[in-house]
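Standup, Tuesday
Yesterday: got the pipeline producing structure tokens again.
Today: sanity-check two examples.
Blockers: none.

Example 1:
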Amino acid sequence: MGLRRYILTRIVLTLPMVFILGTLVFLIMRVIPGDPVRSALGPKGTPEMIQQIRQQLGLNDPMIVQYGRFLGQMFTLRFGNSLVGGHRPIINEMSERFPATLELVTPASVLALVIGIYGGAWAASHRKGVIDYSWRIYAVVIYSLPIFWLGLMLQLLFGVRFKLLPISGRIDPIIGTSLVHRTNIYTIDSLISGNWPALISVLQHLVLPTITLGLILSGIFVRLTRINVIETLAADYIAAARARGIRERVLVYGHALKNALIPVITLIGLQVAILLAGAVLTETVFSWPGMGSYLVERISQRDYNAVQSVITVFALLVALISLAVDVIYSLVDPRVRY
């Protein structure tokens, strides 16, 4: 099967997954007890107001009609207006928050991969030694730590005790007034405008949440990389290369690690959901104004429409990244196409 046909096949297979994820989101939001409109309005909501908003949201329509409308909103990304905060279009609110999540998740993923891949390869090259046992203990301990606890400990240590780094927000409020917002990704905006004080402030605010999210995710990559590098080092071609006098460092990092990365690529797609869940907690701990904190805010405000929309976007992201991982996997290992 050629690459183009394989990609088309994966796209076709992704559509049912998106459909199933959307259906699950729709059903879960409908089986939650309570009236979302009554919960959002609180005691100030009169029966007339409640009925009017329910009519606007289409909650009085038959379930099949609501389901069809929901699928249309999901594929067109037109989620309607929020129930609170000025009743702004939800897609506009999410477009303001998503860049912040992207700015946090990207360096955290890079940090997790760097620590996980090279840590796992280092442990495999010193199997049953002190380095190996140290990395194995690290992987188990760091993966089992609650992400909010690790974030709080880093805040207390580096923010409160030593006062080295800020503990909340994306940028210093005063410096932020001079930053020109073009993409809402502050590192890019500060580079485009040449605002170096803003760039320094943004990077300082990124350090603690990035370390928190990246360390938690690195544990699973350490374990998987270690296992696969050990298996690869036992292969015949590695033994032949070792017999020819090739240095062990070249064998591990130049030959074994490349072949051991194929399962790691697959795991990246599977970790997307955990990454988004971790972003929710990390953003809450560090008051990071991204999609995660937006979801928590809307849950606390009983904004049914916004909560449903954010969960739907998260589900779509998981599906799209899984598709991208499948395509990358086929490029790395052409055997999967056949």
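Example 2:
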Amino acid sequence: MSISIGDLARTVALTRQTSGLKVELDRSLIELTTGTTSDISKAVKGDFTSLAAIDRSITMYSAYDYSSTEAARLASAQQDALDDLHVMLQSRGTQLAAAASVGMDSSVKAILSETRSDFDMALSRLNTTTGGRAAFAGADTQGAVMVSADEILTSLRTAIGLAATAEDVMAEVDAWFDAPGGGFETDGYLGSADALSPIRLDDNRSVSLDTTALDSALRDTLKGFAVGSLVQDGLLESNDAEQSKLAKIAGEEMIGAQDGLVALRASIGTSQAKIESATVRNAVQLSALTQARSEIVGVDQYEAANRLSAVQAQLETLYTVTARLSQLSLAKALG
């Protein structure tokens, strides 16, 4: 059996044509799926200046879009936590202040028991995280923000010592929560004293989400729950009048803390509006830049689909012809 020079030449030619069509098929498929020409150099006529500038801007605004999304997530986590704290203050503060004004009866003890649960929940909300980032820890975004309620209460009992009146107890509690370098900062708070750095939203704007558990409004919030928890645990139980008075003060602390919490929520709400505005602006810029890039290197999807169909048809035809020629060559060899 022999193969002629003509058969070899035809085989080489068909192989070369098949390879070329496969390359064209891959190119057409990529253009159809990406919407971008495969020959960018030809599209920009060798001058990449404008395209490079657009690509740099797209990269920059994509980064702004990411940072504004992260900022929105953090602000939302803070706002949700503060909303929960506000609800707890509203419901428990009025109940406790009113009930304790008439003495330490069973209703007060029931409310105090719920206050202890609220204290755990309040600390849990301050320990909230979003995307692996602690929401109220300042620059130290990893790990817990506050120690447990039991640890705080233990530290407070040590500070209170032998205080025998509601006023004396509150003097020690106020010092523990409010004094610079006091118990709250050394034994209770685990985050950073440094605020989270401002988050860049676009070329000219940034937002500061710098609320931490060190904020006075949050200290005041925790103070009422902590005092109520101490009473629930039996503080001043040997003096019913003083214990009742302390329980009432705990409720009043919760009521008084609400104004600071409302102001804090309003401040974060202003930041949320700023973030939302920047997010919209960035989306508009990204859309315009993407459209400008498409006008330079984009392909018509309809034409790309037609080219792909045409190449597929040519390739199928070539395969058919190759198969028939192979059959003829075999018949010739056998003959």
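Quick observation on example 2: The chain is about 75% helix and 0% strand. The two ends are 10 Å apart (CA to CA).
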